[in-house]
Amino acid sequence: MPLDECIANMGVDMGMYREAAVQQVTVDGQVYGIPEFFNVILLIANNAALEEAGLTVEDLDTSDWENITALNEALTVVEDGEVTRIGFDPKLPEFLPLWAMANGVSLISEDGRTAQLNDPAVVEALEFANSLHELAGGRQDFLAFRDTWDFFGAENQVAADQIGVWPMEQWYINVLAGSSPDAPAVFAQFRDREGEILTFATGNTWAIPASSSNPEAACAFAVTMTATETWVAAAEERARLREEAGTTNTGVYTGNREADEIIFGEIVAPGTSEIFDNGVSVALEVMDHAFSIPANPAGAEFRQAWQDAVNRVLNGEQTAQEALDQAQEEAQAALDAAWEAE
């Protein structure tokens, strides 16, 4: 259900939430959710692999796609015909919106009514990102190797020297700090082809089903769970647990800008780890450069259309143009039907 009445009755200032988060929960001028967690993308790199290749964090320039190709070539390792280190993981299908926006176009119009999936810039972005799989033997060998990673464990792909660089949500900083604090990680901003910092924002929200039997209580719960003081209490508990475990506290990232200012200004103390101080700094910097996919009443169908298209390309079933032409028809049909039903 729309939450405008809930927001008004509870005196919620939506201005304290991040703009990209509010955009994602607003359809046709009405708010349908209270933003909770806020995720943004940054680059995470294996500094040992960079050093081995004679590179530094300054070489992680995604504004130059020829440079990304060169990074992939410099950092990929194939031994006896089998990949042992992926140079640059483009994170497809999930990060197609990031690659498309880096190439100057959103997957959907600002008003959420018109799909733009087969725009030439999207086609080019998908073709380029997919090409990064080739050095590892193609998508199937790439995935087979990636599936062996201990992604959340102490022998994760950075610690085990199985990755060069990849775009990733900032919450993975917490994973590295907890599971492999000595891994040679380094962090940098993702940039568009004009050289500007760019990040793709996603997250979670509290919403209330239209059939709710007690919307007033649900409203109070959603507002309480996303309030500044609630997030601060959660961050203080996270800090306590990390101190107890002897690991670095890298904070919690929220859709509440006011809460983040307190968390990262008063609770997360820099100086315990240069590596993770850098990661937190980069994550906070890119948050102010976030875009999101405009909300629309066919959100699930729209996402399914472009993800299926990317997967068809990755599996060699269609060219990027063919897959995105098909996705454009599917997505636009879903959008038209959903908007008409509004």
Kindly summarize this structure in a few lines.
The chain has 342 residues and is of the alpha+beta class.
Q: Which sequence of strands runs across the widest sheet? A: 5-6-7-4-8
Q: How do the SSEs run, as a string of H and E?
A: HHEEEEHHEEHHHEHEEEHHHHEHH
CATH architecture of the largest domain: 3-Layer(aba) Sandwich
N- to C-terminal distance: 12 Å
Shape: globular
Strand content: 5-15%
Name the CATH homologous superfamily of the largest domain.
Periplasmic binding protein-like II
How many separate domains make up the residues? 2
The helix/strand class is alpha+beta
Q: Give helix % range.
A: 40-55%
Mean of residue pLDDT? 96
Quaternary state of the chains? single chain
Please provide a written account of the structure.
By secondary structure, the chain is of the alpha+beta class. It folds into two domains: 4-36 and 201-291, no CATH class; 41-192 and 300-341, 3-Layer(aba) Sandwich (D-Maltodextrin-Binding Protein, domain 2), CATH 3.40.190.10. Helices cover 46% and strands 13% of the residues. It has helices spanning 4-10, 19-24, 47-52, 65-75, 96-102, 120-131, 139-146, 172-179, 215-225, 228-245, 257-267, 274-287, 299-314, 320-341; strands spanning 26-27, 30-31, 34-39, 41-46, 77-79, 82-88, 163-169, 185-188, 199-200, 202-206, 290-291. A five-stranded mixed beta sheet has the order 5-6-7-4-8. The chain has a two-stranded antiparallel ribbon with strand order 1-2. Strand 5 (77-79) and strand 6 (82-88) form a beta hairpin. It is globular and about 65 Å long. The chain starts with a helix and ends with a helix. 42% of the residues are buried. The mean pLDDT is 96.
